Amino acid sequence: MVSLLVSARCELNLYDRECRTPLIKAVQLRQEVCATILLKNGADPNIMDFFGRTALHYAVYNEDTSMIETLLFYGTDIEECSKYEYQPLLLAVSRAKVNMVEFLLKKNANVNAVDFLNRSALILAVTLGEKDIVILLLKQHNIDVFSRDAYGKTAEDYAIETRNKVIFRLISEYKREKTSEELPINSNPVSSQKQPALKVIKISFIF
């Protein structure tokens, strides 16, 4: 049927009352053959429906890696979404889809993308208590652990707020390792006798 419509040069980007195109419906229903035919013949993979979601959002929701590969091959924007919808990566995080998060990161999804409340994937993962996703995100070399949401809070702040000792420790260790990597090597160190005394301040968090 899809091949027949394509051969008859029907409009491929028509949409229903929820602004869902034939491509979006095909992806929703896991009809990869139909979706591929539509894409090959010029269907726009970046059209958003009424909810601000593209076909990619539904492929992520279905955890359909093959469909995602096809959509990306035909030019799907991996960051596309409306102002009030999650990017595909953030959608995967919000649904605790660990495998999808890993897959999208390998496809170069922006690990520092933020939602309408300026929440990053890391902040979302921490608020949801998703340790495995936090670990995945912290493995990304360019992740911004200091990013603040619309309320001025960082991922570490939420770990403290939710009393999640494991996630708090993960973020703290990441920051400590990152800081040690960035410390410059002093080629002319001051002798120990001339070094000023350093005060060590210990901060305790009550969980």
From TrEMBL:
ANK repeats: 51-83, 84-116
Key words of the record: ANK repeat
Keyword Oxidoreductase applies: no
UniProt KW Cell division keyword: no
Protein name: Uncharacterized protein
